[in-house]
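Appendix C. Worked example: 5-formyltetrahydrofolate cyclo-ligase
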Amino acid sequence: MDKAEIRKKYKKLRQNLNEEDIEALSLEIANRSLELSIWEADYYHLFLPISSKKEVNTEFLLHILQGKDKSIVISRSNFDTLEMEHFLLQENTKIKVSEFGIPEPENGVRIDPELLDVIFVPLLAFNLLGHRIGYGKGFYDRFLSLCRPESVKVGLSLFEAEEKFIHENMDFPLDYCITPKKIYGFKNSNLYL
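Step 2, the predicted output written as structure tokens:
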């Protein structure tokens, strides 16, 4: 399958999920995340889900990070430049849903991507080599290119891995992907288990 076919397949699979399904699967993902040895870091990047696209609800991960008193970073997307700006999530951070349906910070303390230790990555699908398929705008590939190579990239998926699909050289592979059923580890991921 090519990327367009995979995007179509996983968008349809998501549309078949109801709100209760997404909540239950997202809770499983958050609970499973505790099996990883990633919790000693300082700065964690977390995406806020686009509810209309039925993404993983990251609220459960947010509670884990807050309970561990971690620095949480969230982003705002610029659709003119196709780049993201990153902000520290604080008690007074105002979140506004953009015209694209993305919950984003209106303002805040900017954070350089080089500071990030762990990045939770949204995706539509991923394969057994750790390559992901997103919505096709390249926001996360641009963003990940600015992070330190040793930053841990953790995909979150409602569904299991695709056997294979063609990836592009500019794609940044994941270190892990967490699904409701298991954790997939890729390349140097044994360093962190």
